[in-house]
Design goal:
alpha+beta, 5-stranded mixed beta sheet, 31% helix
């Protein structure tokens, strides 16, 4: 084997960077097809029955959604979002849905999966003036005590005047 000619060395100097560039472009296109950073968010993260929870994400368009209530069975929904990116998926809630839910959005035949949890809570049943509730720690307001005292004194004075006649 002899030495390389100048034209052969020049060809190698051009071919090597071209091969490296081609490999980098191939890797970048593969990353664009299968996004590694699939993200999913929920708003609000907690709500009473009747709340609409909105799942949202960007950088991909999921084809399916898995919903599971803590301790319950899995429900899979096929999504028809077209090429929506970013996307939003509304999830309604109703009585009986109380508990922690996990939603997983994913793209078929890729490693793109993202999950988020939300909670359906019991509605607040205490009213703003619920003074007789046994769980109330505040007690009646001071004006209620004062009005009872004033009415008591006024009634006593009225009765005393009537008896004095």
């Amino acid at each position: 084997m002899g030495r390389l000619s100048i034209s052969q060395r020049t060809s190698l100097r051009v071919a090597l960077p071209a091969a490296i560039t081609a490999c980098l472009l191939w890797a970048a296109s593969a990353a664009a097809v299968e996004p590694a950073d699939c993200m999913l968010e929920v708003d609000p993260p907690k709500g009473e029955p009747g709340t609409v929870f909105t799942l949202s994400g960007a950088g991909y368009t999921p084809s399916h959604l898995d919903l599971v209530k803590e301790g319950g069975s899995l429900t899979t929904v096929a999504l028809e979002l077209g090429d929506a990116d970013p996307f939003e998926i509304p999830i309604g809630s109703r009585d009986g849905d109380q508990g922690r839910w996990t939603a997983t959005a994913y793209v078929d035949e890729t490693s793109c999966r993202a999950s988020v949890s939300f909670r359906v809570v019991l509605p607040d049943t205490a009213g703003p003036l619920d003074l007789l509730a046994p769980s109330s720690t505040a007690g009646p307001p001071i004006w209620l005590y004062l009005s009872i005292v004033v009415v008591g004194f006024a009634s006593g004075a009225f009765v005393a005047r009537r008896l004095a006649r």
